[in-house]
Design brief:
Largest sheet: 13 strands, mixed
Distance between the termini: 36 Å
Oligomer: single chain
Number of strands: 19
Structural class: alpha+beta
Strand content: 25-35%
C-alpha cells in the first residue's frame, strides 16, 4: 500500500477492466462497539498505514452476476486457464495464509476436493486434488505469478486495485460501521457520479484497528443484493506455521513445468532491435498503441477497454460453437456457453460487466451497456 492513494480527490473510480476480478459474497451487516468517527480521508490514511501482514483466515465469496453455473473442475484447472470463468459463478470458500510478501497459500475448497496455489520465495505451485495434477514455476527475482494467476483475490489485494485509480468520477463516503470476522470495521463507499454505468457502488470494509481491508462488496444498478463480494468469516493476525508454505506433489501426481518469460531479456532484445533499425525505416509515432496492447477509451466508470484479438481464446473464431472451440472444460468451450450472439460477434453479459467479442477476435469490455461497447468498436 502506498500514499499515492491519498492524492485526495473527493472521488474514486474503478477501471472497468478491474470489475471482472472484483466480483465475489455479501458483507456482514452488524457492527460491534462503535468505532471513532472518521472522514473518508482518514479511512484512506488508515488503509495506507497498513502493510502486508502475516495472517490466516477463511474467505467466503458469492456471485450473483446472472451467469450460468460452470464446472468447478476440469482440464487445465491446475494452471488456472478456466478458473477465472468458474469463479464468477456461485459461492466459493477458500482458506488463505500469508506471511509477508513472498509466502502465501490459497486453498479453494470444492466438493470433496480442493485447489491450491502456493508461493514460497521463488517457488510457485498450482495443485488440483480432483485429478491429482500440479503445475510448477520458478519465479525470477521480483517476479509475479505467471499470467497474473491468483485463484481467489483477497480483500486487501482487491482494495488496492480499486483505490489505485482514485479520481473525480465517483463520490467517496464512510457508511455505517460493520463487523467482519468478529472485527469492527469502517465502510468506505465509492459511488459513481455517472448514471451511464452498470455499477451502483463499491464498499470496502476496513479493519478499525489495523487498517487491513476485510471485505469488498460490489452492487449493480437495479439490484438490492450485492452482485459480488468477498469477505473474511474467520481471521487470525498471527503468523501461520511455516510448514503451510512447503509443498511437494503427492505420489502419482502429474506435474507440468510452467515457463516464465524473462522480461529483462525481452526488453534488451527490443532495445537492440531498435538500435539496429536501418536508416529511414518508419517508426511509430509517440503515443501510438501497439496492436498487442490494451487500449482504453472514455474515463472513470464509463471506461471501455479494448483487448487485442485472441485475448480470451485462440481456439476458434468468436462465431464458432462449443464443439469448434476446444474440448469440454476448455476456456473456449466455457466462454461459448456463457455468451450469446449479437450483431458482429458474441456478448458475455453480467450485472456489472459486459464483454463484446467481435468476429474479428477483438474484445471490448466495460461496466457499460452493450451500445457503448458497439460504439467504441465502430470508432476503431
Amino acid at each position: 500500500m502506498t500514499r499515492t492513494w491519498l492524492r485526495w480527490l473527493p472521488a474514486a473510480t474503478v477501471p472497468a477492466v478491474i470489475a471482472a476480478g472484483v466480483l465475489a459474497g455479501s458483507l456482514p451487516a452488524s457492527a460491534g462497539d462503535p468505532l471513532p468517527a472518521k472522514s473518508p480521508e482518514q479511512v484512506l490514511e488508515l488503509i495506507a498505514q497498513h502493510r502486508d501482514p502475516s495472517f490466516s483466515g477463511t474467505l467466503e465469496q458469492t456471485s450473483d452476476l446472472g451467469l450460468p453455473d460452470l464446472p468447478k473442475t476440469g482440464p487445465g484447472t491446475a494452471s488456472g486457464d478456466t478458473a477465472w470463468l468458474e469463479l464468477l459463478t456461485g459461492p466459493h470458500t477458500a482458506r488463505v495464509y500469508r506471511d509477508g510478501a513472498d509466502s502465501a497459500r490459497i486453498q479453494v475448497l470444492d466438493r470433496l476436493a480442493e485447489r491450491d496455489v502456493i508461493r514460497h520465495g521463488d517457488q510457485l505451485w498450482f495443485y488440483n486434488s480432483k485429478d491429482n495434477t500440479a503445475a510448477h514455476a520458478v519465479l525470477p527475482a521480483g517476479g509475479r505469478h505467471p499470467s497474473g494467476q491468483e485463484s481467489v483475490p483477497t480483500p486487501d489485494r482487491l482494495a488496492a486495485k480499486l483505490l489505485a485509480a482514485l479520481d473525480r468520477s465517483s463520490n467517496v463516503s464512510v457508511g455505517t460501521d460493520v463487523e467482519v470476522a468478529g472485527r469492527p470495521a469502517y465502510q468506505l463507499v465509492l459511488t459513481p457520479r455517472s448514471t451511464a454505468t452498470l455499477l451502483a457502488s463499491v464498499s470496502i470494509s476496513v479493519d478499525g484497528q489495523s487498517g487491513m481491508p476485510l471485505g469488498v462488496e460490489v452492487k449493480a444498478r437495479g439490484q438490492s443484493d450485492p452482485a459480488f463480494s468477498v469477505a473474511f468469516t474467520k481471521l487470525s493476525l498471527q503468523a501461520p506455521d511455516a510448514a503451510i508454505f512447503q509443498f511437494s506433489p503427492p505420489p502419482g501426481a502429474t506435474v507440468k513445468e510452467l515457463p516464465v518469460p524473462d522480461h529483462k531479456a525481452t526488453g534488451a532484445k527490443e532495445k537492440r532491435g531498435t538500435a539496429t533499425k536501418a536508416p529511414g525505416t518508419a517508426t511509430k509515432a509517440p503515443g501510438t498503441a501497439s496492436k498487442d496492447k490494451v487500449k482504453v477509451s472514455g474515463t472513470g466508470w464509463e471506461s471501455v477497454v479494448e483487448l487485442p484479438a485472441g485475448s480470451l481464446t485462440k481456439a476458434a473464431p468468436a462465431k464458432g460453437g462449443p464443439e469448434q472451440q476446444g474440448g469440454p472444460g476448455s476456456a473456449a468451450s466455457l466462454l461459448a456457453q456463457a455468451t450469446v450472439p449479437v450483431a458482429g460477434g458474441r456478448l458475455l453479459s453480467t450485472a456489472l460487466l459486459n464483454v463484446l467479442i467481435l468476429d474479428d477476435g477483438r474484445v471490448f469490455a466495460g461496466s457499460v451497456p452493450l451500445e457503448r461497447l458497439q460504439a467504441a468498436a465502430a470508432a476503431r
